[in-house]
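lol ok so funny story. i was supposed to be doing the assay writeup but got distracted and ended up predicting the structure for this chain instead. priorities right. anyway since i did it might as well share w the group, maybe its usefull for someone
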Amino acid sequence: MPKVLLATTCRWISAARMGMALHEAGFSVEALCPSGHPLRTTDVFSRIYPCSGLRPGASLLHACLRSQPDMVVPCDEWAAQLLRRLHASKTTPDPVRQLIERSLGDPSRFPVIESRSEFLASAQAEGIAVPPTTLLGSEEDLERWLSEHPLPAVLKVDGTSGGEGVQMVTSRESALQAFRTLHAPLPTAVVLKRSIVDREYKDLGPWLARAQRRVSIQPLIDGHDANIAFLAWNGEVLASIAAEVLKTAAPRGPAVVVKLLDSPALLHALERLARRLGLSGFGGLDFLIENSTGKPYLIELNARLTQTSHLALSSPHDLAGALHAALTGAPLRERRSPVATDTIALFPGAWQCDPNAEVLSSGYHDVPWQQPALVRAAMAPPSRINRQNWLALKARLRAPWRVRSGQKHEA
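and the output, tada:
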């Protein structure tokens, strides 16, 4: 039985859903995750390794060495970056470096994947339509761009996803203000909230170093979002799921309702890029479909698991099944898909945004009913989750005082 290690540093439900899909496809599945992750409520993981918030790289290396999986799958941006850093480290054992190459693809292309501007330049060289993108190093660069291009425009920070680090600007003043905000290190209040309440520490190091962020600018295209999730192997696309975004959780935020697409244009762009970058593993491409022409513009690569990757669709849209076939050499097993409509309400986003939405009665409900504890965990109000984290932190801080006071407590 082939083994997959899912690596995640945040508490997205997509890791749990992918674990379920891989288990159903015939994998032994293990995971590296922080405490309190929803995947811990399921029964599909044979082993779970703790991810230290302050030393995630060491945790990831330990998990790879202990698990010895056939493949490691990053489930978020930070996990993908940690894997690429491990590969670049001279102290990383060769078996782990080989695992990362097998899981992510050609390591010589990692710098291109990490830079939004370099990635889009590579796409343009393949004849793929992209919005003209300029990397901004200073306010002078922005002033020069504004003198040559009309507004509105969009400013974006490298290494972000789900609408984070993206601002639309309509005037010179708003553009300058947005650049100052995005280029500077994250505000202290944001970093403390993420570290203390959310227990996510990836921003702590750059904030302590006062590292400035890489910002690029693009003209605004009047269009709607689409994406294509994929599984690639040594530059070849083995399976993909294309979808048009019908509803998002917030403006420019993650999708909560999608409509499946049969789009040769998106697939063609994906195949060219996978071959050029030597991609392996799971990922996704984001597009803007221009409203006036229907022309797709590529805007971003997510070199990690995306939220539609787990969907159990028929071949060639079964990503988990395609991975099993690639690793074992067995023919792809046809599975009966439970998805009987092309409109899908993604769980739990669609429910949390609008429980009375029409799609919840007419579309496919992407709910993991076979894992009731996961359903309950995913539907817990964020305020309640944050309160639990805050109370746990207070208890930790008060523990030394209790010892000094002679009060009995348990660790």
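Residues 132-219 form a domain with the Dna Ligase; domain 1 fold (CATH 3.30.1490.20). The chain has four domains: 3-104, 132-219, 223-377, 381-411.
back to the writeup now i swear
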